[in-house]
Amino acid sequence: MRRFVTGQAKNLIDHTRRHHHKTLRLLSLASSDSTLVSSPRLFSSSSLMSGSDSSSSSLPVTLDSLNPKVLKCEYAVRGEIVNIAQRLQEDLKTNKDAYPFNEIIYCNIGNPQSLGQQPITFFREVLALCSHTALLDESATHGLFSSDSIDRAWKILDLIPGKATGAYSHSQGIKGLRDAIAAGIEARDGFPADPNDIFMTDGASPGVHMMMQLLISSEKDGILCPIPQYPLYSASIALHGGSLVPYYLDEASGWGLEISELKKQLEDARSKGITVRALAVINPGNPTGQVLAEENQREIVDFCKKEGLVLLADEVYQENVYVPDKKFHSFKKVARSLGYGEKDICLVSFQSISKGYYGECGKRGGYMEVTGFTSDVREQIYKVASVNLCSNISGQILASLVMSPPKPGDDSYDSYIAEKEGILSSLAKRAKTLEEALNKLEGVTCNRAEGAMYLFPCIKLPQKAIAAAESAKTAPDAFYCKRLLNATGIVVVPGSGFRQVPGTWHFRCTILPQEDKIPAIVNRLTEFHKSFMDEFRN
Amino acid sequence: MRRFVTGQAKNLIDHTRRHHHKTLRLLSLASSDSTLVSSPRLFSSSSLMSGSDSSSSSLPVTLDSLNPKVLKCEYAVRGEIVNIAQRLQEDLKTNKDAYPFNEIIYCNIGNPQSLGQQPITFFREVLALCSHTALLDESATHGLFSSDSIDRAWKILDLIPGKATGAYSHSQGIKGLRDAIAAGIEARDGFPADPNDIFMTDGASPGVHMMMQLLISSEKDGILCPIPQYPLYSASIALHGGSLVPYYLDEASGWGLEISELKKQLEDARSKGITVRALAVINPGNPTGQVLAEENQREIVDFCKKEGLVLLADEVYQENVYVPDKKFHSFKKVARSLGYGEKDICLVSFQSISKGYYGECGKRGGYMEVTGFTSDVREQIYKVASVNLCSNISGQILASLVMSPPKPGDDSYDSYIAEKEGILSSLAKRAKTLEEALNKLEGVTCNRAEGAMYLFPCIKLPQKAIAAAESAKTAPDAFYCKRLLNATGIVVVPGSGFRQVPGTWHFRCTILPQEDKIPAIVNRLTEFHKSFMDEFRN
Known about the structure:
The structure is a homodimer.
Chain A: H1 2-18, H2 23-31, H3 33-38, H4 45-50, H5 68-72, H6 80-94, E1 105-106, H7 121-131, H8 141-144, H9 147-159, H10 175-189, E2 198-201, H11 204-215, E3 221-227, H12 231-239, E4 243-248, H13 259-271, E5 275-282, H14 294-307, E6 310-314, H15 331-337, E7 347-352, E8 366-371, H16 375-387, H17 393-402, H18 413-439, E9 444-445, E10 454-455, E11 458-459, H19 463-471, H20 476-488, E12 490-491, E13 493-494, E14 507-510, H21 518-536
Helix pairs in contact in A: 1-2, 7-9, 7-17, 10-17, 11-12, 19-20, 20-21
């Protein structure tokens, strides 16, 4: 255990040596075992107390004996900086005056409700009624719930065999809910969707894992991924032992996706003996926030068709578009409008209830729409889904609701639209304000967030800061982000966690803090950045 | 697609050739594409209509190109027989008179609420209040909910940062809920439990996968598993590319677990160059239903300690014990009472909200308690948990509730106890009735279900039946189970799906149909068995 404490402490101490804020407090936080034991942490107090350590232990499992694929996997969105933030947050409870800030603001993760976004009332009403169905028999319920939420709950229960929301469902999800999702996709795209193509999942992540598991046999199987990318892709490719084949988005053209770059990287990978199995596209982009133009999407579909690649379309931000000149188009719609059907292209679209205007991250719902695979391959996907039995039913219900929300004339419609538009227009405002603030900072350039939930500014770091990061054995952008956290309480993720063009440095910052917090965030960020640049100016 | 239809049809046709029931109807169901298209199925109607087939397609993904580990994986609990049952069920809706039964009774899976078991009211009340927290501000709520469910909901919301049940939680689950679970474990075992040892999961399955992923690097890594076993183990070992090292439970001594057998199999595996990493024990047993004696558990713990094995303790049926002479003891309690602490033994206990008296399968909640691993190894477990962000919050809440149910004096206490004891005593009765009925059948012997939710009778099949199965290219027990389904509508899982001593044949049957259905099930089963034996008597 001491090894861990020492490692974590080193980072904090490295920082305090150079920084003037509250040095003593941080030193004591970092170096005192007793402080660490009394605060929440990842590790067991029993293991702390017994002093178990891989070097001294006779236990059978050591790092060396673990699956090397697990060791290789990285997931920066919940990495070291978040761990430091959690310890600071705990310490703030009892040591309010010890820090130059009074709260930790988590801009590291697309988790809207953790920052005060309220859930959509209609969705939660339906969920409550389906959770405790006895409510539906009580007359008092009519005073507490909208009439369409009561109707909807009855309709949903009628779709579930025996009205049993506590039963495992079909491995792909409850058929009637998949019908609703398919109808929602049809309404969105103007092309048919088949409920039997829907595999409901606990969020989008398990769907991505499932496809990686299916497609990757060894490191000779490659998946084309955007750089920068959401680290779920690099993590799941590492866990399944495949090769991430990078294609670089062009920051100068607003994170443009060039077919020539795809071709170049595909050929390069093939020349190394890698069989490229799939192309992953995140649209709207994460962490990059761009929304692809339809013409660009057509080229991508043609490229996949021509090169025999599965198109893995991460479309979880489909409701998050903030600029009037861009519009979301699903890849399935684009493929079908090009005339490509089931026999022409393998396409998987991932959707999640964690994003959009609803932001129901904690409910872990989502689906993948799987088209263009032969029946024997689909049978294998079904089998893998079956091993985990089914995704959670609350998530399944919510996934059906977001694809079939209240309609004009429904009791909830007006309040639903007000809640939805309130959230989306506020997100658009926040994105704009933060982007403008970032672009005012010395050495920082930031593309606009056309969609999704993030800004991904580029920071030109002074040579002295890069040198300081090197001596602290940390990536320069991680160095910047740790300093930002310790000075302001703002948590962002270093660009190195998403990969980036070598020699460039970025961070990902969500646009999710509530509007009334944005001015303070802009002030703190601006002040910190100025002082950081002053400190390390060449 | 035609290949699939043909395959499925073959089984049905093989059957109808030998069987007198409704031959024409089954033939038409099996061979008519149009019937299949109009009924729910695994496969897309679009792929059906386009006639896509792996042999004719130019699509990039074929069975040959898939990860061979996926192809190797099997999961019989939702295998071929369940698919046939689903088609029969659909066909019954419009063709009631076509079959010698009027409903499908799913005894294939431990899914109590799908068979009419009602959820525990208190748990659902709390869940509804946490789903739609605005209810807590309404005075009418007090007329609809028990006062302790309202109190509990408030307490739970206070444990969640920002009361945000729609936010991702800590990757291990909400700290306050883990506190409640740890307290529940302490109360159960009389030994300390640390909330930082708890990793909350979407049911037990993802926890088992996570540990397999960690421990298995290649087919040279082995996991000792009971035979018969719950196929999650064989499936996850196959998916992660390891070797299942079997140890056989002794049917003659009530599915006894002999240390000599463990030793023999361990040595045998080692002699083949396999590094055995862990021992999986399912207690109470699935599919076997035995409850281990404490003395036996002590031997198992000592064996793991001595041989340097991780003990993977599947304890999801810990609340399901039906006989007065047996009691559940957690392996952690047994290890601690032997004086083994954190430094002595690596132990993972899996728990699920899908089982017990609550049977909340659809909520997908559970946890694993991870003890005895070094901090650097635990950091890797945490990282893998983080890649999927967190388990669903409703499942987390329920997992905390089942470990801290209402106490004497609480408003709900009496009704809670009545519901709980009603379910458990009824399950005990059903287990006994079914076991006695099975033991009366010619050539069938069945150990009692001391715990869990299953009976696993051994059937001595006549040689003629075995020959008939062979010519139908199916395992003899699968042949029996398909015949049972087609004659009675009862769905059970062939023993071959769980593995068994070669040359013996079994099936797994849940004890979950509601009490009023049991007499009819016994009658149908008895009648079928008699006619089957008469047909194939040597």
